[in-house]
Amino acid sequence: MDGTSWQIEQGCPRCGAPVTLEETDRILACPFCRTRLYLVPQGHFRYHIPPVAGAEGELLYIPYWRLRGSSFTVTAAGVTSRFVDTNAIAADLPGLPPSLGLRPQVLKLRFDTPATEGRFIPANRSVEQGVPDLGETPKDVFYRGFIGETVSLIHAPMLLRGETLYDGLLGRTVSAFKIANRECLPAPTAAPSGQLLFIPTLCPHCGWDLEGERDSMVLLCRNCNSAWACSDRTFTRVEFAVMNPPPGTGEVAIHLPFWRMKPRFVGLDLASWADLIRIANLPKAIMPAFASEPLYFWSPAFKISPALYARWSRQMTVFRPIGNEIDLLPQASIYPVTLPLGEAAEGIVINLAQMVADKRKHYPGLAGLRVTLEESRLEFHPFVLDRNELLHAAMRVAIDRTALAYGIRM
Hints:
seven-stranded mixed sheet, mainly beta, single chain, 8 helices, ten-stranded mixed sheet
């Protein structure tokens, strides 16, 4: 795949004007009435490819899982990562195309609504069953994680005429698949109701317009200095901190967001900073005070390549950028939060796996490890510009500016 996001056609809920969204968009911004609405799916997003107008036959929609994001695998050799962009049929129907091919990249999708004509074949295969890359874990793999994923269900149009299924776009017979008895199909249903909600992007505290890019998962209010994430049907406040740069750093070019998480492990004796130094064999002398210092894990709150995600998660957790902070939103540019807290929490085990020193001892227990968050917050870290790189103001660790552009395409 070339990383191109799929496009979705959607009418503005306020004025009805046509709006084209990217697959990763979470804010619908109407260019005509200037309305800004936050998109909230119930579960995952559901789309369909419109059939050719005037085609004859009973319109059926066949479900396909769409999966996109960073995949991490832990084996005896260590942690490997790669980017996954794939789709696969989500129903047990023989003879149908196993994937959508390139169609969603050249055709615009539409959201499923109760008004969508046609009947929908239900998805009776899970994402793990549908996508080969997420199938049963082999014995030599200790753990698999998927972070920053986009999971959605796309319905492809088929036309049932007599005992034959036809492609709803090209009109061709679909793999010469004959239907001698319609009961062999899972019972089709109408389009689901109430699948997509549109929430006004207004601050719940002061009513001010919330700021955010079209793919932002956390919106900011500069009027009352607050941050908000949409949970279910409402915005909930997100605790945040802005890290101050050391004296003499120079002008800050941008603040990049990171999640700081305090996990609780079940199945592993790991509760303090001293415990992590031991289990990771870090080159630090364990002081008595370290035993009472809380254990924090950091994760980028923005999408980047899998390799950079793993590197920055490890470096921030080891460096522990604690202290010298304020709770006022900075005037400098803020990069949008595109990786939600839930996804970052799933990356804690991956981060731990790349740090543990005794892999033979700890890797077999990773699959049974349970992690819950005792606390979390969003941190904005200052970065200064150095030619084509961005340098963390305190750590002096660089990230290439083009790496951020890669994350926009994920």
